[in-house]
Amino acid sequence: MKDTDPRIAEAFARLPEYFGNHVLLSLSALALGIAISLPLGILAARNAKLRWPLLAVASLVQTIPGLALLALFYPLLLGLSNLTAMAFNAPFSAFGFLPSLLALTLYSMLPVLRNTITGLNGIDPAIIEAAQGAGMTPAQSRRMVELPLALPVIMAGVRTAAVWVIGTATLSTPVGQTSLGNYIFTGLQTQNWVSVLFGCVAAATLALVVDQLLALMESGVKRRKRGRIAAGVLGLLLVTAAALVPGYAQRVSGSYVIGAKTFTEQFVLAALIEQRLQNAGLHATRRDGLGSTVAFDALSNNEIDAYVDYSGTLWATQMGRKDVRPREEVLRELTKWLEGKGVLLLGGMGFENSYALAMKRSRAAELGIKNIADLARHAPQLAIAADYEFLVRPEWAAVRDAYGLQFREQRQMQSTFMYEAVSTGEADVISAFSSDGRIKQYDLVVLEDPKQSLPPYDAILLVSPKRAKDAKFIAALKPLIGAIDVELIREASLLADQAENKQTPEGAARWLNEKIGKR
């Protein structure tokens, strides 16, 4: 009997946590959306002045991309949390669940609101007149006659809202909310198509099951069959219990949270830290796929306990520095700046992962390009592909202005496809990571930076203010300091990246852990 594919085994191992959090978020958002939309729909059904603005606002929300709406709520809530902390000494968590809940609640409102208005306004006026003729007040008529008649239409809106919410909840991963989207975001980055497919199938299955249970309830309402309504309610309760109960202990006891940004190296390092903590008898969970700013804000606000960042990223993005200094000076000033925020720089991991411009080796040789100064002469005829962040980061502005770079075309894409684009010739240059194993895999050459326009990017392990004096936590992580050179991290990242390896970031982290132990 053949061994189970480790990608499938890892996917099933993560299912209770991912599925439980996805269901909790989706049902909470749907319930809150119904609680808001149903009363507003009842009020707007007979009030034209209220109806149009409500429908217009709810429709406008649907035009905002789901990921953008989720991302917008995080800084807004973080600012509000800081205000409540200063004014009332009562901060709240702006990370993960709350921004996701509010964004998905807004997404759920339109179908419920619209169908409530449509259902109530579609009732034959003669029926309403008959109710009033029987001595009912308008409120009694609405409660006892109109709402029961409109309920099938309202239930159809609830079904639509449920499917929308469950699907959109997969986009909550970048703001720190664990969901089935973790499979998709991680799988896309690491070319783990088993993980991507697993996440898509799980989310689609959940949406279909919930939709069919709501359809059963809708049918019971239409035909006045209490048994069908009860069966639908019982089914939803069973789905909820099946999702939440297995992961309950894990969610309650997950005392340490490790963050990871949106690329393979980060997933591997987060898994490595998680394994180190577990080996020390400490329970840990991960929050993968965080944006750079979200990750640091979450750490400094004690929403995550540790993650690996890069000195150049913090220097340019968080500190807002545009000058380039020697490595020792950058680390010294950065350490002091972090201390002011209560964040502990535990130490360097032992390698540098700098932003760099890279080309396919054969293409660079064809054009005689060895460094960025050479590239600048050819740039107007070339296309550059970059990850989502690079072209809006201060580092890009610095290197562009230093060399006068003007490309024929600039494209942003997920980094997996960025490497594919340069390999197939759809892009001539990419914004690579110097420690990425795919540089070797795709036979790329990193262009030299003779003007040293980019700062040093030493990988550094950061610890949150509340864990900075946690002796057991620090002791478990200390052996990682200085233990990983660039060749090791390249091999580990490549191991997790290549689909033919049938490997996962967790497997690559175990391999890396073994290599560290042998040194």
Itemize the secondary structure elements and their pairings.
Elements (H helix, E strand, L loop, with lengths): L5 H40 L2 H16 L2 H23 L8 H25 L3 H9 L4 H31 L12 H10 L2 H31 L2 H28 L2 E4 L4 H16 L4 E4 L4 H9 L5 E5 H8 L8 H14 L3 E9 L2 E6 H7 L4 H7 L4 E4 L7 H10 L5 E4 L2 H10 L4 E5 L4 H4 L2 E3 L11 E6 L7 H7 L8 H12 L7 H13 L2
Parallel strand pairs: 1-2, 6-7, 6-8
Antiparallel strand pairs: 3-10, 4-10, 5-8, 5-9
Helix pairs in contact: 1-2, 1-4, 1-6, 1-8, 1-9, 2-4, 3-4, 4-6, 5-6, 6-8, 7-8, 8-9, 10-21, 20-21
Which labels suit this protein?
three-stranded antiparallel sheet, 21 helices, alpha/beta, D-Maltodextrin-Binding Protein, domain 2, 3 domains
Give an overview in words.
The structure is a single chain. The chain is an alpha/beta fold and 519 residues long. The protein has three domains: 6-252, MetI-like fold (Orthogonal Bundle); 256-352 and 460-517, Periplasmic binding protein-like II (D-Maltodextrin-Binding Protein, domain 2), CATH 3.40.190.10; 355-446, 3-Layer(aba) Sandwich (D-Maltodextrin-Binding Protein, domain 2), CATH 3.40.190.120. 64% of the residues lie in helices and 10% in strands. The strands form three sheets. The chain has a five-stranded mixed β-sheet with strand order 7-6-8-5-9. The longest helix is centred in the N-terminal third of the chain and has 40 residues, at 6-45. It is elongated, with a radius of gyration of 27 Å.
